[in-house]
UniProtKB/TrEMBL annotation:
Keywords: FAD, Flavoprotein, NAD, Pyruvate
Annotated protein name in UniProt: Pyruvate/2-oxoglutarate dehydrogenase complex dihydrolipoamide dehydrogenase (E3) component
Residues of the Pyridine nucleotide-disulphide oxidoreductase dimerisation domain: 361-467
Record domain FAD/NAD(P)-binding: where: 9-321
Pfam families: Pyr_redox_2 (PF07992), Pyr_redox_dim (PF02852)
Length: 477
């Protein structure tokens, strides 16, 4: 292997997914020379195997589901989806798994791209083993930012390698519809992919170890999604785990903890994520390979004055938009420290503090119905010691919901802090509610008092009128 002479940059970023790209962008905007290292496609997991392809797959599914509840339109959309067209649409949104456009964007901001596997080789030093056997040595004057993300976890079951199970990558990039699909896991990936492939014609069986779907959201979210999946033809089994899995010819055979035998063509494990830090050289700076990286609110790694961990790898909020938010915060902090600013704005909601990671994380689950939430659930708020009240409204009671579609089913909940009379969290479940979430995010992040929200008048007749119903219910309680 040929090793180059050391090249110095102000900032070196490991990982060129959306988070790493945003760190590089903020660093370059501050006038800092920046190198970014990527071993796969520039644009990362979100662009090619997660957010973009999954939502491209689900858009047609959800649009058809909505249309089937609209008088005058429902009869026209009773047939099957054109799966070939949906998959082609997905391929367009992944740029056919080519990263030319992303490369042009990074070139445009002036960041230097190094392709290959990057590893820490001591404080402020990174080596990059390139695809042609060359080794680049990079040093960082001010910061190294680790934005390597996570990988899917597959359980260590006997024979699992021979089965060749799907993870989220295969589920979002497959080019053929399996006749029968077993989905293991009831989190976001599990329920979204169950929704998509059931709509494409797979006979889907969902196996969930816990009591229900979407365990990190309000219980009613998982209940409504499970009900809809079942009505669509999926077999949802809770309190069930996989004990063994084998492939007999082209058939996957699953044995469950209940002793059931399930046959399928493919099996998807959506059972969690692990940090991509196992081969990152953490041992050269006294950290444990394979570990999550603990950070402060500026995303600087605990105990370091130069190492940052931004995005999923710090385990604060495993969401692309939240990682990009962290990147904006970390980029500002890196720039300020490089400029010698003596005191950063690290108080809650300051320019250099990722406070939303604790108080206002938004998430939309693109199922039918959609589930959208921001901030704390009732259980989380109570466990944190807050004195709160949950206020619930049936979304079907709002005029806009009935106009959206006949038989609209959904629910809204807001968690009110009784000491401050602000919102700790909001959850919506129902068709189309994902586009309503940002209003809730503003209310939670802005700590808008309930008395002021009373003056935020929702347009009539929209589903957003549920805000008025929630506030009325709170006042009348």
């Amino acid at each position: 292997m040929t090793e180059s002479e050391s090249i110095a940059y102000d900032v070196v970023v490991l990982g060129a997914g959306p988070v790493g790209e945003n760190v590089a962008d903020r660093a370059r905007a501050a006038g800092l020379s920046t190198a970014i290292v990527e071993s796969e496609l520039i644009g990362g997991e979100c662009s090619y195997w997660a957010c973009m392809p999954s939502k491209a797959l689900l858009r047609s599914v959800l649009a058809r589901a909505d249309a089937r509840h609209v008088p005058g339109l429902s009869q026209a959309v009773q047939g099957p989806l054109d799966v070939g067209a949906v998959l082609a649409h997905r391929d367009e949104y992944t740029s056919h798994w080519k990263d030319d456009g992303q490369v042009r964007w990074l070139d445009g901001i002036g960041a230097d791209i190094y392709r290959g596997h990057g590893r820490l080789a001591g404080p402020r030093k990174v080596t990059v083993d390139g695809p042609d056997g060359e080794r680049h040595v990079l040093t960082a004057r001010h910061a190294v930012a680790v934005s390597t993300g996570t990988r899917a976890v597959v359980p260590d079951l006997p024979g699992i390698a021979e089965v060749k199970p799907w993870t989220s990558r295969e589920a979002t990039s497959a080019h053929a519809v399996p006749g029968r699909l077993v989905v293991v896991g009831g989190g976001v990936v599990g329920v979204e992919m169950a929704t998509a492939w059931q709509a494409f014609g797979s006979k889907v069986t969902v196996l969930v170890r816990g009591k229900g779907l979407l365990p990190r959201m309000e219980p009613f979210a998982g209940e409504l999604v499970a009900e809809a999946l079942t009505e669509a033809g999926a077999d949802v089994r809770t309190g069930t785990s996989v004990e063994a899995v084998t492939r007999e010819g082209t058939t996957v055979v699953v044995t469950t903890s209940a002793g059931d035998r399930i046959e399928a063509d493919e099996i998807l494990f959506a059972t969690g994520r692990a940090p991509r830090t196992d081969d990152l050289g953490l041992e050269t700076i006294g950290l444990d390979p394979g570990s999550w990286l603990s950070v402060d609110d500026s995303c600087r790694v605990t105990g370091s004055d130069w190492l940052y961990a931004v995005g999923d790898v710090n385990h604060r909020a495993l969401l692309t938009h939240q990682g990009k938010y962290q990147a904006r915060i970390a980029g500002a902090a890196i720039a300020a420290r490089a400029a010698g600013v003596p005191l950063l704005e690290t108080d809650p909601w300051g320019a250099h503090a990722a406070t939303a990671d604790h108080a206002a994380v938004p998430q939309v689950v693109f199922t039918d119905p959609e589930a959208a939430a921001v901030g704390l659930s009732l259980a989380e708020a109570e466990q944190a010691g807050h004195r709160v009240r949950a206020v619930d409204v049936d979304l079907s009671s709002v005029a806009g919901a009935g106009l959206y579609g006949e038989g609209y089913r959904g629910r809204a909940r807001m968690i009110v802090d009784l000491d401050t009379e602000t919102l700790r969290g909001v959850t919506f479940v129902g068709p189309g509610v994902g586009e309503m979430l940002h209003s809730a995010t503003i209310a939670v992040a802005g700590e808008v008092p309930v008395n002021r929200l009373w003056h935020a008048v929702p347009a009539y007749p929209t589903v957003s009128e549920v805000w008025l119903r929630l506030l009325e219910a709170y006042r009348d309680a």
